Amino acid sequence: MTSPVYVALDTTDVAQAAALATGLKGLVAGVKLGLEFFSYCGPRGVEAIADLGMPLFLDLKLHDIPNTVAGAMRGVAKLAPRLTTIHASGGFAMMQAAAEAAREGAAKANRSATKVLAVTVLTSLDQPAMAEVGFGGTVLDQVKRLAELAQKAGVDGLVCSPHEVAHVRDVVGSDMTLVVPGIRPAWAEAGDQKRFMTPKEALKAGADLLVIGRPITGATNPADAARRIAEELR
Ligand SMILES: O=C(O)c1cc(=O)[nH]c(=O)n1[C@@H]1O[C@H](COP(=O)(O)O)[C@@H](O)[C@H]1O
């Protein structure tokens, strides 16, 4: 079975990210670089990791007015990651502008398009935390609402927690890529993740790809942790 795991390299140190990626080559599907990495290492850091030749997920969770997000997405497109993220809560017009900018950027460079994924409700939020910021309904209803809106706006996939992934699949069908963070093997600490499941449970619920960070990168031996997860998924 090919690995469904993108490993989150959450660090501000390019050399550390590169060492982790190199040590995990062949054990994971690809690497994810996010805000922690990008805020300090920037596009040149992304290029350094891309040069290692592993599939790249650039997770910047863009969220701004449509014109600004489209501009940022044109920059992302120049880095040519396989996957990237925007926040679905930025709204229909913002998601549409992002998806168009990603497609145009790829067409200009004559390559296959970066998949734009809309993040629904962060896996670090639970029901009380959602109520605190003014969401009266359930997390599940909010995730489903945003999933439907994102699909209408033309994005390629969604990020949701393993708790909602089966419901999201029912809403959007098989065309969209469902990427699921909030993954914790039974032997790992939850940390700040609130809506999580084991890798096996998340795949069974319908995830296409899993995002896993600290259970692998924080292990004494990250390669062993990745192998253990692969064995659990077999
Ligand atoms: O978009 C994401 O990747 C993401 C969305 C979400 O709702 N929750 C979430 O944890 N993530 C990312 O997934 C990774 C999870 O890392 P760990 O909690 O260390 O496994 C981090 O890089 C988060 O930024």
From TrEMBL:
Keywords for this protein: Decarboxylase, Lyase, Pyrimidine biosynthesis
PROSITE patterns named among the record's database cross-references: OMPDECASE
Top EC class, one word: lyase
Annotated ranges, domain Orotidine 5'-phosphate decarboxylase: 4-229
BP-aspect Gene Ontology terms: 'de novo' pyrimidine nucleobase biosynthetic process; 'de novo' UMP biosynthetic process
Gene3D superfamilies: Aldolase class I
GO molecular function list: orotidine-5'-phosphate decarboxylase activity
GO cellular component terms, A-Z: cytosol
Lyase in keyword set: yes
Catalytic activity: orotidine 5'-phosphate + H(+) = UMP + CO2
Transmembrane region(s): none
EC number(s) from the headed UniProt entry: 4.1.1.23
Lyase in keyword set: yes
Residue numbers annotated as active site: 59, 61, 64
Residues that, per the record, bind substrate: 10, 32, 59-68, 123, 184, 193, 213-214
Recorded metabolic or biological pathway in which this protein acts: Pyrimidine metabolism; UMP biosynthesis via de novo pathway; UMP from orotate: step 2/2
Family: Belongs to the OMP decarboxylase family. Type 1 subfamily.
Subunit composition and interactions: Homodimer.
Role this protein plays: Catalyzes the decarboxylation of orotidine 5'-monophosphate (OMP) to uridine 5'-monophosphate (UMP).
Name recorded for this polypeptide: Orotidine 5'-phosphate decarboxylase
Gene: pyrF
